[in-house]
Amino acid sequence: MSHLGRPDGQKIAKYSLKPVAEKLAELLGKPVKFLDDCVGPEVEKACAALKPGEVALLENVRFHIEEEGKVKKEDGTSVKADPRRSRPSAPPSRSSVTCT
Q1: pLDDT digits 0-9 by tens, 16-59
Q2: How far are the Cα atoms of 1, 41, 49, 79 from residue 21, in angstroms, in the given order?
Q3: CA-based end-to-end distance of the chain
Q4: Measured between alpha carbons, how far is 12 from 38 in angstroms, rounded to an integer?
Q5: Residue 11, beta-bridge partner list
């Protein structure tokens, strides 16, 4: 799970993590399963099905307005995330890697 850029809660192709998954697979020398979302039952199911040593990369969390809390629209107005859709915490991950 990661983020890239500031897509303001919109799914914008240039901020997709799919190219990152492809490069990561190249660097690891093993397949990386790319999931086209970062939340929801399908993502949870795919992550639960991973076997030891398998790698998955979730899509950019910033494609969801809830990640930022609010976003600025093109006309300059702000839109706040619906607190009923925000999750108090993400489901636990089995591991994560941060590269700097």
Answers
A1: 889 999 999 999 999 999 999 988 899 999 999 999 999 999 98
A2: 11, 21, 18, 31
A3: 15
A4: 15
A5: none
Question: How far is it, in rounded angstroms, from Cα 32 to Cα 50?
Answer: 11
CA distance 7 to 71: 9
pTM higher than 0.85 for the full model? Answer: no
List the one residue out of 8, 31, 12, 20 whose CA is nearest residue 81: 8
- Compute φ and ψ for 47, nearest 5 degrees: -70, -40
Quick one: tokens of 45? Answer: 């199911």
Residue 21 falls in which region: left (phi positive, over 0), alpha (psi -120 to 50) or beta = alpha
Structure tokens at 40: 């929801």
Task: Write down the pLDDT at residue 82.
Answer: 66
DSSP labels, 16-63: -SHHHHHHHHHHHTS-EEEES-SSSHHHHHHHHTPPTT-EEEEPPGGG
